[in-house]
Amino acid sequence: MLVLLDSARVSHPPRIPKFPLWVPPDFLCQARSADSCFHTMPKRQRDDTEDQHRGPSKRVSSDDAQKRAGEKIFHGKKIIHRALKLAKGFERQKLSRRQKTARQKDDAAELTRIEEEIEALKVLRSS
Prior knowledge:
The protein has a domain at 79-127. Strands 1-2 form a two-stranded antiparallel sheet. Helix content is 54%, strand content 3%. By secondary structure, it is mostly helical.
């Protein structure tokens, strides 16, 4: 139902929700005892006939399992390499910041230590 107020405006009737916006907690616990009121749905019970309809179990050969394990190890190496590369960049930024402050303070010992750490970071293999 549309009611025209102006030629440019259209008014709609107020929207009424189909469900209550607030449900008292005791309403949810009526079906269960007060001790086991966790506000969760009960688990679905399976029949014995459902086991028959599942089909054959999926057995994995040792070759497939070994191939899959190799793939997982390769993926893990990639993730670790990516994380170490990111950490190396953050460490470089931190050392550059400390090098800048050491130059401003004219702290020679600190400056040489930081420069040695920067050289050690450059030596690290990034591939």
